[in-house]
């Protein structure tokens, strides 16, 4: 039913690249071909190669380079009067904006990309852009608004036999079920996604599906060792492909699994590792989630109650500013877990944002860098 997974973002002279190509290799090849296209005065090819360069930088966590690259790709596509290539560049920019926590900008860019994809007759970039819009809403916790779009995109991907897109849609829907407490449904969908990804040789999709399975196995079944084994398998794929973001989320999930098992010192170590990784790639959502896990672990290890309260207050403000509804619910659950009320940290020195776990760059800087 499904063919081998392909990477439509690798275009022009880079179509031979695999969906499983190391991102370092993609960056090397893409940069070389981009320079050759620029020297030859071929803006269409420069746009295509620039897209691959932008995506490699983004997935490697090199956000400033990614920002420059997608904009350069868009300019080259506009010079070539290639509407579909313009759409692909905007899709890359919108995906980067979401990764950096600028959700309003992400929606604007992805909507423009979907519109241009339709005008340019490129059904794939239109589908990827709509998927980006759906994922943006899902990450923010707007499940009712995007569940139907996820289902629509899943049906379209199944109909066309697009393994990679089917896996993405299954994982997104599964995540919403998991967050809503529907663990059996979530498990079945993550399991199907893992099977399709494995058969289609989509190592990235397979790694994300394994992460989802590990989460459900941990929270539903309490099977810590199986969850850790799944994460270890997923981590191997992340390292082979240089997937910095996926690897950081893998480490954060390993922290979750260890925390649930009562291994709080081990969880603290993994959360701290993930936090450093997210900060390196300027990923505010992952950073906030790692901070939350770290705060909970430290609280279990005897941290002063007022310090924990101040940390949770600061996290709630950060998440509100970013616009992450589900994550704010997680902060509320943490307060309930430790018997801490909102505002209990007021008056503590860390309540003013001086705490050692806080990121050195705020959301305004993050969003401004994208623009």
UniProtKB/TrEMBL annotation:
InterPro entries (UniProt xref): TPR-like_helical_dom_sf
Pfam families: TPR_12
Region (Disordered): 344-371
Domain of life: Bacteria
Protein name: Tetratricopeptide repeat protein
């Amino acid at each position: 039913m499904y063919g081998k997974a392909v990477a439509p973002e690798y275009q022009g002279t880079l179509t031979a690249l695999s969906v499983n190509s190391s991102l370092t290799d993609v960056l090397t090849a893409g940069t070389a071909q981009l320079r050759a296209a620029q020297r030859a005065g071929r803006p269409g090819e420069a746009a295509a190669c620039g897209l691959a360069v932008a995506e490699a930088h983004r997935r490697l966590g090199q956000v400033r380079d990614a920002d420059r690259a997608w904009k350069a790709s868009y300019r080259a596509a506009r010079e070539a009067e290639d509407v579909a290539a313009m759409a692909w560049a905007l899709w890359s920019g919108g995906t980067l904006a979401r990764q950096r926590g600028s959700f309003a900008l992400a929606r604007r860019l992805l909507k423009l990309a979907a519109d241009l994809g339709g005008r340019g007759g490129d059904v794939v970039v239109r589908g990827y852009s709509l998927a980006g819009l759906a994922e943006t809403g899902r990450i923010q916790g707007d499940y009712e608004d995007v569940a139907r779009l996820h289902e629509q995109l899943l049906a379209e991907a199944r109909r066309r036999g697009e393994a990679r897109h089917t896996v993405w849609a299954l994982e997104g829907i599964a995540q919403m079920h998991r967050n809503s407490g529907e663990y059996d449904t979530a498990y079945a969908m993550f399991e199907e996604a893992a099977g399709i990804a494995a058969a289609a040789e989509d190592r990235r999709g397979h790694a994300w599906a394994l992460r989802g399975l590990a989460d459900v196995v941990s929270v539903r079944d309490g099977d810590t060792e199986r969850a850790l084994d799944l994460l270890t398998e997923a981590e191997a794929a992340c390292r082979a492909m240089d997937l910095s973001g996926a690897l950081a989320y893998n480490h954060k999930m390993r922290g979750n699994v260890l925390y649930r098992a009562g291994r709080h010192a081990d969880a603290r170590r993994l959360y701290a590792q993930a936090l450093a990784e997210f900060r390196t790639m300027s990923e505010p959502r992952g950073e906030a989630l790692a901070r939350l896990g770290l705060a909970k672990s430290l609280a279990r290890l005897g941290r002063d109650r007022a310090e924990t309260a101040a940390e949770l207050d600061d996290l709630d403000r950060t998440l509100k500013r970013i616009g992450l509804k589900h994550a704010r619910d997680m902060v509320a659950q943490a307060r309930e877990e430790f018997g801490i009320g909102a505002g209990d940290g007021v008056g503590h020195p860390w309540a003013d944002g001086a705490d050692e776990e806080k990121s050195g760059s705020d959301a305004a800087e993050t969003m401004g860098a994208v623009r």
